[in-house]
Design a protein that fits this description.
alpha/beta, six-stranded parallel β-sheet, five-stranded parallel β-sheet, 14 helices
Length: about 450
């Protein structure tokens, strides 16, 4: 066990919300072992540092490496005494990192990050499995319902990093959500690499709808939001529960990536263009006010101008409420990197990114203008300058737009819900005024 005087530990989290959840579980274990846990990358008074890394795409890898090097330099200067690296970058490149950055005391991967619990002398107590030390604002939290992925899309390294799909037992998730609600969490953001695949390995069938029903019964939880749903085989019962359960936000993050059949086939997606359009019609028929968020990938090998124009038509027709677009880059070990040629020039890739986003900006502005005059239930996230910053059920934290409310009106409280009348709109922000306060639980 490490010396008892080294009790302040800084856990730095990079990458996605799944890493956030892993870090929060780790921090709860460390706190139970009497460590004083902080989570600020700029802290200089902690003698132990743990960096939870991302290894998904080039920019994220570089950010992780730079953070490790900064911490290694701090260790050489005597500012910290122990340095550990966990997460996705460590899963993929631990041997190379050990050779290149010997200042790190040990590396643990995305699948074995809990090994650091033993390295730091913390208890391996199963009763702590459902306890978290939140790093998000206390009124919302991510709930990771499974790990890994079985789809093996051509461009994606996630199965190489995090392995095959593994669901977390439903009873454990219920307990974790109840614990979060007891600490003041009002919004659960359900995440996984594919949320709709939940339960197949444990129960022999997809069980996301049943899990959502159970989460809706938890007292204190007001909103439940779904992220990262794979389009292929989307369960009918999930559509039904989203339409019928008032606690479930009318919001769905569903990455389509492309719409051209040639590109979808090359990407090794498990659906085609017709199936994508059919799913969107099913969703919007059952849930007319649904906000759809998607992610698109341009510049994938052999993407023709015709393929790209087909993608633009898709964006024009569907009019996604939220949309992100990325330029393809090779990820070693994936099917695309090993079997296909990265033959689209970088300039073309970036032009296509810009063309999609220019189109989406116009669509977003038009969608927002239609919301002017409406009254929406809003949760307050923060105060920034002269405005309170809130979100409707159609907006997820950190990735979507915000609703700004003048701070001169009245005092508002973070984590509480208010009825807000939308008065004006820009491309990606709304401005409103308090109409009346909703009853609090």
């Amino acid at each position: 066990m490490l010396c008892s005087v080294m009790k302040k530990i800084n856990v730095i989290t990079l990458g996605c919300s799944k890493n956030t959840v892993d870090s929060e579980h780790l921090m709860a274990r460390l706190a139970a072992a009497d460590y004083q846990v902080v989570f600020d990358s700029d802290r200089t008074d902690a003698k132990i540092v743990v960096i939870n890394t991302c290894g998904f795409i080039g920019d994220a890898k570089q950010e992780s490496i730079e953070m490790i090097l900064r911490a290694a330099a701090a260790k050489q200067a005597g500012k910290i005494e122990k340095l550990f690296v966990i997460g996705c970058l460590s899963e993929r490149y631990a041997d190379e990192l050990r050779h290149e950055i010997p200042e790190v005391d040990d590396f643990f991967g995305a699948r074995t990050w809990d090994g650091i619990i033993r390295a730091l002398g913390a208890a391996e107590d199963e009763t702590l499995n459902t306890i978290r030390h939140l790093t998000t604002p206390r009124h919302y939290a991510y709930l990771k319902i499974s790990e890994g992925c079985n789809w093996k899309c051509g461009y994606c390294a996630i199965p190489l990093i995090r392995g095959e799909h593994r669901s977390i037992p439903m009873e454990e998730l219920e307990t974790e959500a109840q614990n979060l609600a007891a600490t003041g969490v009002r919004e659960l953001i359900v995440i996984a690499q594919d949320t709709t695949y939940y339960g197949i390995d444990l129960y022999g069938k997809r069980m996301l709808a049943e899990l959502l029903h159970r989460l809706c019964r938890i007292e204190g939880i007001e909103w439940i939001r779904l992220h990262y749903a794979y389009p292929a085989g989307f369960p009918d019962d999930v559509i039904e529960v989203m339409a019928s359960e008032p606690k479930i936000c009318k919001y769905l993050d569903i990455p389509f990536q492309h719409i051209s059949d040639a590109q979808l086939s090359s990407m090794r997606r498990r659906h085609n263009k017709a199936e994508a359009y059919t799913l969107i019609r099913r969703l919007r028929t059952a849930i007319p006010d649904l906000a759809l968020r998607t992610t698109l990938l341009v510049g994938y090998p052999d993407e023709t101008e015709r393929d790209f124009e087909e993608l633009l038509d898709f964006v024009r027709e569907v009019r996604f409420e939220r949309l992100g677009v990325f330029a393809y880059s090779e990820e070693e070990g994936t099917y695309s990197a090993e079997k296909l040629s990265d033959n689209i020039p970088e300039t073309i890739k970036q032009q296509r990114v810009e063309r999609v986003m220019a189109l989406q900006n116009r669509i977003a502005a038009e969608n927002n203008q239609r919301r002017v005059g409406s009254t929406e239930r809003v949760i307050i996230d923060s105060r920034q300058g002269d405005f309170y910053v809130g979100r409707s059920q159609y907006d997820s934290p950190e990735v979507d737009q915000e609703i700004l409310i003048p701070a001169t009106e009245q005092r508002l409280f973070r984590g509480r819900f208010y009825d807000v009348q939308i008065e004006s709109a820009t491309d990606y922000d709304l401005y409103g005024a308090i109409k009346k306060r909703t009853p609090q639980q």
